[in-house]
């Protein structure tokens, strides 16, 4: 078994691959300006599809395309969509979010819970912007540095496990430089983190006797992560961001009134 296979073996029966719950998903959705006019949602790194179902149910006139690279996840979403009578509105697609092709201006909302790290935030924000119709939005959650300074143990762990972890302020600057306006940012509460970590902890315990070296390696990393996240829960955690595509006129107007908008306007015009 490879390490990748071991990861999917561990996560296979779990309903989440990252912190999050429907309350956080819907809170982010409610921040989307004109949410009831949303018709085309593209979810990337959809995992088992929890958010895809929450979005489809909350937006009865929208179609949600849920993309994931792992075929069993995609097949599971398609099957559950059929069972739930949502097959006409949830389309499950096996695809690589690094390579998918999406028509310009064809999407109202790009959604990525716990998956933007796959391609990296700067690349992802640049790639997604042309897909959005004017005024379209991006919503994503990511592991973020909440504290100014991390404790030594947390710093050492995340330096290896997530060296790209940024602060909320850095993410806001990145988003503006990439041609977005920040609509909302909120830290996910403890229960949204535990909705992921509690079942994961039980799964790690269930597989503890595994003789497979790759599984054992994955379990060791997860044990450490769960311990660090819980012990330093006020230093780092998942933040949800909702961004709106900034339009050139908006950015140009902002450039006159705000010193930070000049940079965004220059990017948008280029
Ligand atoms: C951390 S999980 C998050 C899953 C889900 N959004 C959630 O919150 O439960 C990341 C997901 O991205 C998928 N993934 C990884 N690389 C991918 C890629 N290149 N293209 C599409 N999906 C990918 C994984 O299969 C996994 O389901």
What does this molecule look like?
Helices cover 46% and strands 21% of the residues. With 270 residues, it is α/β, with parallel strands linked by helices. It has a single domain (16-150, 162-189, 236-265), classed as Rossmann fold. Strands 1, 2, 3, 4, 5, 6, 7 and 8 form an eight-stranded mixed beta sheet that branches. Strand 4, helix 5 (121-128) and strand 5 (132-145) form a beta-alpha-beta unit. Helix 2 (22-30) crosses helix 3, helix 8 runs antiparallel to helix 9 (213-231) and helix 10 packs antiparallel against helix 11 (261-269). It is globular and about 55 Å long. The structure holds S-adenosylmethionine. S-adenosylmethionine (SAM) is lined by residues 16-18, 20, 45-47, 50, 67-70, 73, 96-98, 113-115, 118.
Distinctive features:
binds S-adenosylmethionine, globular, eight-stranded mixed β-sheet, 8 strands, 11 helices, Rossmann fold, 270 residues
Q: Considering DSSP H and I runs of 4 or more, what fraction of the residues is helical?
A: 40-55%
Instruction: State the domain count.
Output: 1
Q: What is the overall number of helices? A: 11
CATH class: Alpha Beta
